[in-house]
Amino acid sequence: MSNKEELTRVTRHGQVTLPASVRREANVEEGDLLSVHLEADRIILTPKKLIDKSQGYFWSKAWQAAEQEAERDIAEGRVESYDTVDDLIAALDEESD
Fold first, then answer.
1. Domains, the chain, ordered by start
2. Which of 1, 73, 83, 92 could join 78 in a cystine, given CB atoms 3.0 to 4.6 angstroms apart?
3. What is the rounded distance in angstroms from the CA atom of residue 94 to the CA atom of residue 80?
4. Would the pTM count as exceeding 0.85?
5. For the residues of 22-66, what is the DSSP string, one character each?
6. 3-class DSSP state for residue 14?
């Protein structure tokens, strides 16, 4: 990440143009949302993305923790594969006995 300082001007109605180099580095595109908050004497802009409400569960802390656990299991070879659904069901039945 670049630490190069860029200047921009506040125009009518409080509008600010983000320099192209900053937009590229932050991957901010036309129409993107930015959250704005004050931190001491600084104005902090943070790029945000909207997530469809029906997909919100995926981004919950609990779901993300489970995703990370699954990724670790896969990376460490703690997985099983089955040739057919019937083989999978038979293996599940054996576990429940």
1. 12-48 (2.10.260), 53-96 (no CATH)
2. 73
3. 14
4. no
5. HHHHHT--TT-EEEEEEETTEEEEEEE----GGGGGGGSHHHHHH
6. helix
